[in-house]
Each structure stands twice: as C-alpha cells, then as structure tokens.
Amino acid sequence: MNGALLGAELALPAWYGKLPGAGDFVGRRMQGALARTWEEWLSHGMAAGRATLDAHAPLWSFAIPAGSGEGWVQLGCVAPSRDRVGRRYPLVVAQPFAPQRYVRENGQGARADRCIRLMGAIARDAIRGALGPEDFDLALAQGLRDDAAPAGSDARSDALRAEGGWPNLWEYFDPHGMTSFWWTDAGDGAPRTDVHTGGLDAALFQRLFGEPQGGLA
C-alpha cells in the first residue's frame, strides 16, 4: 500500500495540557501559532460547559493538514486528562511537520499508523500512571524510538492491535488541504470517526467530547 509520512526523521512530538502528575498546565515543544491554536481550542471547548471530558471520554487520534493546522501537518492524539488535584483538561500530543516533507512511499502509511497509536498508548499510560512532565517526555522518547519494543505495556500492545480509524487514509489525505480526520479505536468502545473542514472550532470539540462515551478508564 502507498502510505504517507515524512521525508526525514523528526524530533519528539510536541504536547500540551494537563497531567495527573503535575499541578497545572504543562507542555513541551509546543510553540508559536500552533501553541496558541491548541490552547484556544481546548480552553474555549472546556469553557463552553457542554463537554463532559470524564473518565469515559475517548482518546481521539488525528491527522490535520497544513491548511487547517497553522501551516503544519500534524499527526497525534488528544486525550481526556486532569491535573494533580483533579481539574479536568485535555492532553494533546502532536507531531508537526512541514507539508513539503510529506512523502508517499511503500510502508510509510503503516509507520504513520503505528506512531499515532503509540502516541495514544503512551498518553494513556501517562494519565493512568499519574506521570509528571519529565517522566511523560521520557516515555515518549523511549516509546517512539524506531527500535523500541512494541509491547512496553498492556495499553501499548492493545493499541497496536486495535482496529478503527480511516482505512487507507494516507492514500487520500491532502497535506496542503483543509480537511482533518479524527478517529477512536476499539479500545475506546465502538470505533468512531469524524471529518472536519477548516480550523479547530467549538463544533468539532463538541462532536468529539460533548457526549459521554464508553471507553477510557
């Protein structure tokens, strides 16, 4: 299958939000307009008061094109989380890269899928294990290495086996476009998908987190 990912190795993904092992907002490598976009979307979505974001809300994986991602293609996930005292707020993990670094080669689609699933599994582990920012960053560094064992935890093993998402997504994903793709996997109950055109907005947040869902514990 022709896949799509990167033309070169990238640094660790950026992330932002709340972790159970920290007392307030934390993040790494999330900078500039990208940071402002995520912060505004998450904060406005939570402030709207319609999102449940409880322990049963799903983790959503995403592929966001440059046209709706402040000029960057982004692959990653957003998960329901909380801080040390229980204040709920999402955790987003995103690997941004310039659209011109997007290539179509045999096997790259499988690699993209694996990386996205691993990011989600590492985020789940961090939330369940009440990790702080340093430990979470270390988990990303270790878990996303090309030579990393695929079964660092039960959650990680389950993530790599899970089904769901958009079949053959990388054959039609447009890195310069305006259409982003979102999905949960079977580990969060019945798999769900969403497609969104344009920037991150309140309507998208409501669709993803506005109703209780069975899944992440």
Q: TL;DR of this structure?
A:
With 217 residues, the chain is of the alpha+beta class.
What does this structure look like?
With 217 residues, this protein is α+β, with helices and mostly antiparallel strands. The protein has one domain: 3-Layer(aba) Sandwich (pa0076 fold). It is built from six helices and nine strands. It has a seven-stranded antiparallel β-sheet, with helices on both faces. Helix 2 (108-128) runs antiparallel to helix 3 (133-143) and helix 2 packs antiparallel against helix 4. The longest helix is centred in the middle third of the chain and has 21 residues, at 108-128. It starts with a strand and ends in an 8-residue tail after the last helix. Mean pLDDT is 84; it is low at 212-217.
Largest sheet: 7 strands, antiparallel
Report the radius of gyration as a whole number of Å: 16 Å
Mean pLDDT: 84
Under the CATH scheme, which architecture would be assigned?
3-Layer(aba) Sandwich
State the helix count: 6
The largest beta-sheet arranges its strands as 3-2-6-5-4-8-9
Overall, the morphology is globular
Number of domains: 1
CATH fold-level label: pa0076 fold
Relevant CATH superfamily: pa0076 domain
Instruction: Identify the CATH class.
Output: Alpha Beta
The helix content, as a percent range, equals: 25-40%
Gap between N and C termini: 34 Å
Pattern of helices and strands = EEEHEEEEHHHHEEH
Low-confidence runs of at least 5 consecutive residues: 212-217
Task: Quickly give the structural class.
Answer: alpha+beta
Query: How many DSSP E strands?
Result: 9
- Percent strand: 15-25%
